[in-house]
Design goal:
about 500 residues, alpha+beta, Alpha-Beta Plaits, Dna Ligase, domain 1, elongated
């Protein structure tokens, strides 16, 4: 058989305890490993799922909640949340995207992955299954995995823990399977059993036209999709990244400082999510909920996109310390939806050997290059992040160019929470130099101090004329000069012809 004619290989991930594990994770996601209280998920006052300790008390699925309390006084019941389950399933699908681009939601507890093209990349099916199971277990879920040549057969294999026999067609691999395990309609299974048909092999041997006449076209279509005789197209998820993760506390949390540990786990999970996709983010939200109601939203804005779990935790802790009104919390959630591609870092192979271009650079160009070093930028952005979360919004701001030629008005405040955009960081050739320290308003010099004639002033550069602001009543001509005062400080001064006076407007360090 040629490679292109080989059937596709489908892997089904089945999460049988999803209804319970979205509230009470069973894997490393579990925060209180020594918690032995019985937990039950209920829907319409009937038990839908049970924890291990609840099942050990003798309770069974389907028992009325009122009867369950009589059998187990310490039982904790939680209302089933289909929205949480669907959100968790979507999040798991996003995690599985690193193993194959073909991931599909297949019901309320199943995910289908087309893994034919991934086997070589992950060194075979067994290793791929091990990696997937390890990933899902780490997220706090108990997975079951089935593999077959059709999605339906893979789903059935996962539910009944069928041994891998994917090299054979489903009709051969599952021929001894009981009809009750094929997820056929119960009335149809009952009729077939009365006819003496109890396994798949016997069902396949029956004439199809007779089965169609007796059980309907839908029954035949299901059987054909199971055997691979009819196409079973899947709707694969879109790879648009979105991170959502929740922690539900069985006991309500009264001390907000005790949330630091679960927040740290969520942030490490977020960092791993970003690393796997080579992404960074500039904004994420932490939400503190109680009984399904939002009590407080902690919005974390960064000065520049980053993926640093340690920094995220510091900022979240600062925000948490500022919370006053919230008394109790029973759910913690983390949301992030806007991402940017991570910037690649590169360095010299031999650090001791300078690059040829740096040999021709002057001191100023070398200092500018050092300022653009990724580590230096990271340190500066980290400082900005800490400042803007500890100070009031009006006390910590950025700067950007303003649309005005007057030096004291050619910049405006910029909100650090705005989306980061890389700006021009090096001066273009021919741009006039400006001091980093401006005196506002400009200080008028004494009449006898004429820099053009005074011996303490040494001329460096100028004049540079700025003529602006005629539209707002502040129109004026200014002739700017650079002078060194007494062989030390460099002044930025201007002459205003309207008043025939000199003004000190800036200092160069």
């Amino acid at each position: 058989m040629r490679k292109k004619d080989q059937p596709k290989l489908w892997l089904c991930l089945y999460l049988p305890n999803l209804a319970l594990e979205v509230f009470y994770p069973s894997g490393p996601k579990q925060l209180l490993s020594n918690d032995r209280r019985p937990i039950a998920i209920i829907q319409q006052q009937r038990i839908e799922a049970l924890s291990h300790h609840a099942a050990a008390t003798g309770l069974t699925v389907g028992t009325m909640a009122s009867h369950a309390y009589a059998l187990c006084e310490t039982l904790t019941c939680i209302e089933k949340s289909e929205s949480k389950e669907h959100r968790a399933l979507e999040q798991v699908a996003q995690w599985l995207y690193e193993f194959t681009p073909n991931v599909s939601l297949y019901g309320d507890q199943h995910l289908i992955l087309e893994v034919s093209s991934s086997l070589k990349l992950f060194s075979g099916l067994n290793h791929l299954k091990h990696l997937i199971k390890e990933k899902i277990t780490h997220l706090g879920y108990t997975p079951k995995i089935g593999v077959s040549q059709t999605p339906l057969a893979a789903k059935i294999s996962a539910e009944i823990d069928c041994p891998d026999n994917h090299q054979q067609s489903p009709g051969v691999a599952l021929k001894a399977l009981q009809l009750i395990h094929l997820q056929l309609p119960s009335p149809s299974v009952t009729k077939l059993e009365k006819m003496g048909i109890t396994i798949l092999k016997q069902l396949i041997e029956l004439p199809r036209h007779t089965l169609k006449k007796r059980f309907g076209e839908t029954f035949i279509h299901y059987l054909e999709r199971l055997l691979g005789e009819r196409a079973d197209p899947q709707t694969f998820i879109k790879p648009a990244p979105k991170f959502e993760s929740d922690i539900f506390f069985i006991n309500t949390v009264d001390n907000l400082q005790s949330l630091i540990f679960p927040i740290n786990r969520l942030l490490n999970e977020l960092s791993a999510f970003l690393t796997a996709r080579q992404l960074q983010l500039q904004h994420f939200n932490l939400r503190l909920n109680y009984r399904g109601q939002l009590k407080k939203a902690l919005s974390i804005h960064l000065a520049a996109p980053d993926n640093d779990a340690g920094l995220f935790l510091k900022l979240a802790e600062i925000k948490l310390n500022q919370v006053q009104a919230v008394q109790t919390v029973d759910e913690l959630s983390l949301r992030a939806a806007e991402f940017q591609p991570a910037k690649l870092k590169s360095s010299q192979l031999f650090r001791s050997a300078p690059l040829p271009d740096t040999l021709r650079m002057n001191q100023k160009e070398l200092s500018n290059q050092a300022a653009l070093d990724p580590e230096a930028l990271k340190q500066g952005n980290d400082l900005l992040n800490l400042l803007q979360h500890q100070l009031e919004t009006t006390d910590c701001f950025g700067l950007r160019l303003g649309n005005d030629h007057r030096p004291e008005k050619d910049w405006v405040r910029a909100d650090l929470a705005q989306r980061f955009e890389q700006k021009l960081t090096t001066a273009l050739p021919g741009w006039p130099e400006r001091p980093t320290f401006l005196i506002e308003p400009p200080k008028r010099l004494q009449k006898h101090l004429n820099p053009l004639q005074h011996p303490d002033f040494d001329y460096i550069k100028g004049p540079e004329r700025i003529n602006s602001a005629w539209w707002d009543g502040d129109g004026q001509n200014r002739d700017y000069y650079l002078y060194r005062y007494r062989k030390k400080m460099v002044y930025w001064i201007f002459y205003r012809a309207l008043t025939h006076r000199w003004y000190l407007h800036g200092l160069f360090s």
